[in-house]
Specification:
21% strand, 5-stranded mixed beta sheet, alpha/beta, Alpha-D-Glucose-1,6-Bisphosphate, Chain A, domain 3, 3 domains
């Protein structure tokens, strides 16, 4: 069982959970594995978001890789999907993104992807973790050090690719974008402006510590306020590494990932490009999405939480479209990961072609009430074996059977147990969620 890797790579507080020493060891271990798998001189590309800790970790990580004879290309600040694009198109053996996504600046993380731009599987991550556990007993071979070079123009290749995805000019659309002071702060305004949109930008001045701070997809109320004053057609709130967005319609109402997925699914179906009539989401996606898709004879498949698992199921099912309620949307015809920039372009193009308001398109789906609660715990390793918690979950599932859903899971990035209760009766699901949270607090909560 993995201990270091969560649902999206390695993540934690810098200098506590994620130290420069650990980053060096991770680089060395990953470089060792790459050398065993690749002939010749393998190359790895490393990107980062705007946190002040990124360069510190970049230095250690790249040194570890180079110590095993791996050449390293540093492409500086770029969204995670941009790094995935560069990895699969640039002849790299792997890519590593230094980012903690939506987390505050004091956190950071390492996201790994293979030569094809897809995130590593559980089994591949376990290989790295096992090597790290046996690090001091491993005989790492002496290698001629790899070269470390910086490519400051790499992000332009990704931007040029994005510009040619859709050909319909976006003139006449007024768009507000909240860039979370994160990895998309430079590329997003350039992209949308180049396609003809009238763009108002906020939270686009990163200083190393303000990423996700009272802005972006985790604080969408900021964008809502600006939308009301600007009278714009649509707003987009990015997260710190640019792989997901939430939208805000012309009435300043939030349009979440489920609604964006529905709009995209119906547009692809109209174009005859929704492969196998399948959409893939996670267990957290609203049942209203499933109902709306069913009206159009579109099948919804669910996975465990994590866009990596969504992509794996998309590949198995031959699906074109998938994503998460949180705003990860994967257009597999265009990229191998959730991509906030592609999602924004596709949604704006749909608005332009349809001539409809975003609120009208989003109203195709009726959202069931959902209650989400997070409970801080000492650790998340043994909650599934706790009798009191499992009994409470079973009782809740029996009570709500046929009227809603209960999902309880451990966070893959923080010491939290996440509780989601969904149903038609708002007061009932709130009470149920609170009762479950209280059981978790009593059983394993951090006091």
């Amino acid at each position: 069982m993995k201990k270091l890797f969560g649902t999206d790579g390695i993540r934690g507080l810098v200098d506590k959970d994620l130290t420069p020493e650990l980053a060096f060891r991770v680089g060395k271990a990953f470089g060792f594995i790459i050398q065993q798998q690749c002939a010749g001189s393998p190359k790895v590309v490393i990107g980062r978001d705007t946190r002040s800790s990124c360069e510190l970790l970049e230095n250690s990580l790249s040194s570890g890789l180079a110590s095993q004879g791996v050449d390293v290309s540093l492409v500086d600040i770029i969204p995670t999907p941009g790094l995935a694009f560069l990895t699969r198109t640039g002849g790299f053996a792997a890519g590593i993104m230094i980012s903690a996504s939506h987390n505050p600046a004091e956190y950071n993380g390492l996201k790994f992807m293979g030569h094809d731009g897809f995130k590593l599987s559980d089994q591949e991550e376990l290989k790295i973790e096992t090597l790290l556990e046996n690090y001091d007993r491993t005989n790492f071979p002496n290698q001629h050090p790899g070269a470390i070079q910086r490519d400051i123009n790499a992000a332009i290749k990704y931007l040029d690719y994005l510009k040619q995805i859709e050909k319909i000019p976006l003139g006449g659309l007024k768009v507000v974008i909240d860039l979370a002071n994160g990895a998309a702060y430079s590329l997003a305004p350039q992209l949308l402006a180049s396609l003809g949109a009238n763009v108002k930008v906020i939270s686009d001045k990163p200083n190393g510590t303000n990423i996700n701070f009272n802005c972006g997809s985790t604080h969408i109320e900021n964008l809502q306020r600006v939308m009301q004053s600007e009278h714009a057609d649509v707003g987009f709130a990015f997260d710190g590494d640019g792989d997901r967005i939430l939208a805000v319609d012309e009435k300043a109402e939030v349009v979440d990932g489920d609604q964006i997925i529905l709009i995209a699914a119906l547009e692809l179906a109209r174009e005859g490009r929704l492969h196998n009539n399948i959409v893939v989401t996670t267990v957290l996606s609203n049942y209203g999405l499933e109902e709306a898709l069913k009206l159009h004879s579109i099948i919804l498949k669910r996975t465990q939480v994590g866009d990596r698992y969504v992509v794996e199921e998309m590949i198995r099912s031959g699906a074109t479209l998938g994503g998460e309620q949180s705003g990860h949307v994967v257009f597999l015809d265009y990229n191998t990961a959730g991509d906030g920039l592609i999602t924004a372009v596709k949604l704006l193009t749909t608005l332009k072609k349809s001539g409809s308001k975003l609120s009208t398109l989003a109203s195709e789906m009726t959202r069931y009430p959902q209650v989400h609660l997070n409970v801080k715990v000492k650790n998340t390793s043994d909650w599934e074996s706790n009798y009191l918690i499992q009994e409470a979950i079973s009782n809740a599932e029996r009570e709500i059977h046929g009227q809603g859903r209960v999902v309880v899971r451990a966070s893959g990035t923080e010491p939290l147990i996440r509780i989601m209760v969904e149903g038609k009766d708002d007061s009932m699901i709130r009470q149920m969620a609170e009762e479950l949270a209280q059981v978790v607090r009593s059983a394993i909560g951090s006091h």
